[in-house]
Fold:
Amino acid sequence: MNECFGKKFVLNGSLQPADAFDNSQVYDGDSVYEVVRVVKGNPVFFHDHMERLESSVRIQQKKLLAGESVLRRNIINLLKTEKRKEINLKIVFNYNQDSENYLIYFIEPIYPSDDQYHRGVKGILFYAERKDPESKVINHKLRSSIYHKLILEGGYEALLVNEEDCITEGSRSNIFFLRDGILTTAPDEKVLNGITRKYILDICRENAIKVVFRCIPAGSIREYDAVFMTGTSPMVLPFCCIGEVNFRVDFPLIEKLRRLYLEKAEESIRRFLSSK
Structure:
């Protein structure tokens, strides 16, 4: 299945027809990537994503294939080819034995429904951890294993459990536990520092919401009142259950965090437009 969702994609700065897209340009060799949400036809938290992309490249000791200003121009040109104003785009730096290429393309957006925000979603536990959690690299084998288990168990997201039997992060999100008005999330060095997570932590500091940084043992999740994930597509989305353990989803704090996050997303779009 072609991962490119749209009529055009960018290959090394040049617009190409989607028919010319080849998944091997993404999954062969090593790839560093970012997924950016597009709202109202504009990328959200663009600069933050570019900073993390550069950081991932640096951690992997790879060459930066294009800088922020070049990628910005490429994205603006690509967005002109797309009618949908709410979509995700993917930026990939691919390093193969005989070539180095960067690609920018739309991917099929899978956003939670209003009902899922209201009722919560099912999570599952998956025993694995990222090799380099601080950099965003494509691990096709791990992603496929998680995807198949989610299908089998009817889950929305997998919570990764490390060798110490502690939950670190989600397969495509960061995880927060809530009890007595206090949030608990894994320490920065244990996870990929998600852009949404970064702004949720900013909101907590600005609103005097206490956050404890530690990994929760998988066997202790029932001690918490609520659990939610943060990420580019789900934003702030509660779990109704993880495995057989049920959680409340109707906490005003979760809704408050989602509302304040959306305000910051709007601010980021205004910054992007003002810098054109």
Observations:
- The mean pLDDT is 94.
- Helices lie at 24-27, 46-59, 68-79, 114-119, 140-153, 195-206, 252-274.
